[in-house]
Design brief:
It comes from Bradyrhizobium diazoefficiens (strain JCM 10833 / BCRC 13528 / IAM 13628 / NBRC 14792 / USDA 110). The protein contains 13 helices and 23 strands. With 481 residues, the protein is of the alpha/beta class. It folds into 3 domains: 32 residues; 203 residues, 3-Layer(aba) Sandwich (Rossmann fold); 179 residues, Ribosomal Protein S5, domain 2 (2-Layer Sandwich). Helix 10 runs parallel beside helix 13. The longest helix is centred in the last third of the chain and has 19 residues.
Length: 481
């Protein structure tokens, strides 16, 4: 008779312990250990001491057919997946509750079903009537999508094995699935891992593509063990702010395509609308003539995106000034502030600094250093930056502005949206060429750009007659405090 093996498993990271303790030593979370029976985590057929079977080995020189892709009917979704869904692939989609994951998948499955493919939508959280209500609100109730409300993995696999193999299967969500091979409650680490393994095995055997919907934690990470993210072929994150209508689908992992592409959607009353030109959307509510705003010409995957950076520098009454940033790396902001103070003489130790990326977009590339520095200095000296200029360039610790990749694509996107000039690194002038038709202001060091903005601020300060309100170039000289 098999002996029961009890262990305490962290519900956040999946680490196992022999006894209960308040804090997980692996991920640092408190009160996440739950008692689980791990004796049944492995099927009986695997635990038995049977002799393994032999299998054929192949060489590297063999030819493998290209994996055909299945288009979702949505350009932005196909962009993130790398051109469509690959047969036998398993994708994990995560996002905050209510962000629009089910809406996105309902629209995609309806379009694919109308194209003649067999699509199955398995809901473990909602009843069939609730899914129908969403489809009716989106105007997709006539799509031939096959629905079911089921949570047993064995029943799902047995049902889907009958008849023609579905081209796409949606499991909403993986945290609600359970399997008979383990005795833990649904949603635990053991159940999530075993359920995902059974569904992945079915996808690889039949060639059906499967989309798993996953919950996220309070930190924005996909809930459950990280081993599930390693098991699937692609991990996509659906991001967005509740107060914004923008939604961004970002690929975190993709075995069949790039991992730096994004898909931009707009949430409307009739569902998600694809945004073919996200630059116009991010700059649609731009406030012209306000100090502390700069337009950054960035690259997301293969697509150039223009977004506005907003900065606010205000005197502080606290001993330690505040540093708040939304949509950018806080460590990157600290580095830019240190370079401004060390090499440009910009005194920010007595000011609170706030930086925001308008529109809810998250920027990861270091090319935004120059635009962030221009916005910060503009807010400090109360000087308006040119409204027809874009900024991009990486700032080194020595204050030198370094070149970035894909300069022609950034300039072409800026010219298409009506911008007249660009502030870019000196070494990127030759790469830019003259096709974009922009007036190029090449800077070699950050000190040059700071001096130009400070001079503009001094003129505003002299006209206003207040030396304290608007900074003068003197405060940027090293010898003066």
């Amino acid at each position: 008779m098999a002996k029961n093996t009890l262990s305490f498993v962290c519900q956040n990271c999946g680490a196992a312990y022999n006894r209960w303790q308040g804090k997980c030593e692996s991920c640092g979370e408190w009160n996440t250990l739950a008692e689980e029976d791990t004796s049944g985590s492995v099927p009986v057929s695997i635990r038995s001491k049977r002799k393994g079977r032999t299998f054929a080995l192949e060489s590297l020189a063999g030819k493998s057919p290209d994996a055909p892709r299945l288009s979702s009917g949505m350009t932005e979704l196909d962009r993130v997946t790398g051109g469509g869904f690959v047969r036998g692939s398993v994708l994990l989609v995560g996002g905050d509750p209510g962000i629009g994951k089910s809406t996105l998948l309902t629209q995609a499955t309806s379009l694919m079903a109308r194209a003649g493919h067999r699509i199955v939508y398995i809901s473990g959280e909602e009843a069939i009537a609730q899914v129908r209500l969403r489809a009716e609100r989106l105007g997709l109730s006539d799509a031939p999508v096959q629905l079911a409300a089921e949570t047993s993995v064995e029943d799902i696999v047995s049902t889907l094995s009958e008849g023609a193999v579905p081209r796409l299967i949606v499991i909403d969500s993986i945290q609600t699935m359970w399997t008979d091979t383990v005795e833990s409650a649904p949603g635990t680490v053991t159940q999530v891992r075993a359920s995902a393994q059974a569904l992945i095995r079915f996808a690889k055997k039949t060639g059906a593509a499967i989309i798993l919907v996953g919950h996220v934690t309070k930190d924005g990470q996909i809930a459950g063990p990280r081993v599930v993210e390693h098991m699937v072929d692609a991990v996509m994150s659906f991001e967005g702010e509740g107060s914004q209508q923008f939604r961004i689908l970002r690929a975190v992992k993709n075995r069949f395509g790039p991992t730096d592409e994004i898909g931009v959607f707009e949430m409307t009353g009739l569902g998600l609308r694809e945004v073919t030109n996200p630059s116009e959307l991010f700059l649609s509510e731009r406030d012209l003539g306000t100090p502390g705003t700069a337009v950054f010409a960035g690259i997301e995957g293969t697509r150039p995106v223009l977004v506005e950076l907003q900065a606010l520098v205000a005197p502080t009454s606290l001993g330690t000034p505040r540093r708040a940033v939304v949509g950018w790396d806080p460590s990157r902001l600290s580095m830019v502030l240190a370079v401004l103070e060390a090499h440009c003489g910009v005194k920010l130790s007595g000011h609170d600094v706030y930086l925001n990326v308008a529109g809810g977009l998250r920027i990861h590339e270091p090319a935004a250093d120059l635009a962030a520095a221009a916005a910060l200095v503009s807010s400090l000296v109360n000087a308006q930056l040119p409204t027809d200029a874009v900024y991009f360039g990486e700032i080194s610790l020595s204050g030198v502005v370094r070149p970035v990749a894909q300069t022609p694509a950034r300039l072409k996107e800026a010219a298409k949206l009506g911008f007249q000039r660009a502030v870019l690194p000196e070494s990127a002038r030759g790469e830019a060429g003259g096709d974009a038709g922009l007036s190029l202001n090449a800077v070699n060091s950050l000190t040059t750009l700071v001096a130009e903005i400070a001079a503009r601020g001094s003129r505003r300060g002299e006209s206003g007659g207040s030396a304290e309100k608007n900074a003068t170039p003197a405060r940027f000289r090293r010898g003066e405090g």
